[in-house]
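dumping the sequnces here before i forget
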Amino acid sequence: ETGVTQTPRHLVMGMTNKKSLKCEQHLGHNAMYWYKQSAKKPLELMFVYNFKEQTENNSVPSRFSPECPNSSHLFLHLHTLQPEDSALYLCASSLHRLGRSGANVLTFGAGSRLTVL
Amino acid sequence: DAKTTQPPSMDCAEGRAANLPCNHSTISGNEYVYWYRQIHSQGPQYIIHGLKNNETNEMASLIITEDRKSSTLILPHATLRDTAVYYCIVRFVSGSARQLTFGSGTQLTVLP
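..and the predicted 3d for all of it:
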């Protein structure tokens, strides 16, 4: 248990479904992140939130919609996904906001394994 | 574009030291070097980070060259549970954001 909890751990959905991934941290961190890890590929940064404000969207398709209601919770809403979206989705948090100089250690959750049929 | 270069794979005998190299020749200014590892299908786990001086914690040691263009992660007594992909990461600036970007890492296999 790292302090970052992701649910569900496994999700299977059809292309017409709507589902959400949830991430929760009670580490007192101020920044939260969504990463995508496809098979045999490096982690890809998707979204970044600092103090609940989205500060980075790395050209992610609109079928992925993030939501950060407070600094402890982060959601990834999924709608009309494609089979190639099947991947491990990882949430992370860090104490400091991006852009702040100095060390910035990420704490990751265990991930949500998504399969799109 | 890769900011770090690591060998794709390495083997190490159980009980021996594992030395994982990383090249980060374009590292700038006051950017830190971070090491994470990812055991199959789990989230990455933070190991250690450093700026200029060598660092040691309960998991590993980090040796950074004087010119800061490369570093080595040392697991002093590797166990089978240390088998994982090890990522060496430096922060870089992308527009208004500073990101930690993960490359392909080194697959370390600890052999019995």
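The longest strand of chain A covers residues 18-25.
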